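Re: Re: ligand-bound prediction request (bumping)

Still looking for help on this. To restate: I need the protein modeled with flavin mononucleotide bound, output as structure tokens. Inputs repeated here so nobody has to scroll up.
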Amino acid sequence: MKKEIVVGVTGASGAVYARRLLEVLCRDAKVHVIVSDIAAKIAGHEGISFEGLNAEYHGNDKLFASIASGSHKYDGMVVIPCSSKTLAAIANGYADNLITRTADVCLKEHRTCILVTREMPLSKIHLKNMLAAEEAGATIMPASPGFYTRPQTIDDLVDMVVARVLDHLGVEHNLAPRWSGSDA
Ligand SMILES: Cc1cc2nc3c(=O)[nH]c(=O)nc-3n(C[C@H](O)[C@H](O)[C@H](O)COP(=O)(O)O)c2cc1C
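Reply:
Sorry for the wait, this slipped through. Here it is.
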């Protein structure tokens, strides 16, 4: 059966991660997209557009949307990139917009909730919020690609992060090489 996934895009740097994830997900899954106001501005600044995707778009203020209710069955959610502000809201159950409400629903319904955080350095507040979100059932996947596959381009680095997210969603892909061991 087709997966149904919600993708929330918030105002951290790295809109390119969201665009790439959406491109892949929209091929096979039913996808809901929510972009916060500041995320849309930052994406424009970073040269990324979320237009033209085969997805259902929701305004972040639309708390009457289907996905705001636990009774609407979907497989899970990814917040990518996830700002420290949205992380704080999710970690504390402060569900005042559709992105944080949907994450709240995923956690209470024990559905997949992946937070692709991006900030550096991390304050004690950020770290505590990550731990609280993880303990509530979220998966924290910082946007920090590895270099052991010798990426050649920015696209390779983006794909490495998106590939791990897809793995956790249980979506098949061929985005990045898999480690098959070394004699070293
Ligand atoms: C250009 C720009 C880049 C930003 N990058 C980050 C970032 O990487 N991580 C982060 O946590 N916040 C970042 N912020 C701050 C967030 O956008 C801000 O906290 C905002 O309130 C997040 O709102 P949202 O989570 O509702 O999208 C950035 C802001 C700007 C203007």
